[in-house]
Design a protein that fits this description.
Distance between the termini: 49 Å
Order of helices and strands: HHHHH
Shape: globular
Strand content: under 5%
């Protein structure tokens, strides 16, 4: 039987860094700004809702990601007060 490797990173640290890791992957793939392009230059809640209703699975995936980013930023902003 193989033993699971213990990771030195704490779970809370990993949860705090998911956005940075995701944006690094997006930059590496070369898809940075594609959803902004879909939105016409500015990502808004209305644009995200339109993206979630899109027939394209790629656009829906990008819209869902931005929805999660908006939530995380709002949560972070509220905790700083």
């Amino acid at each position: 039987m193989k033993k699971k490797k213990s990771k030195s990173k704490s779970k809370s640290n990993k949860n705090n860094k998911w956005i940075q890791i995701a944006f690094q992957k997006i930059k590496k793939k070369g898809t940075a700004g594609k959803f902004r392009e879909f939105c016409g230059g500015k990502v808004t809640i209305e644009c995200i809702e339109d993206g979630l209703k899109s027939k394209s699975p790629i656009i829906r995936k990008r819209a869902n990601f931005m929805k999660n980013v908006f939530k995380a930023r709002a949560k972070k902003k509220n905790t700083k007060k």
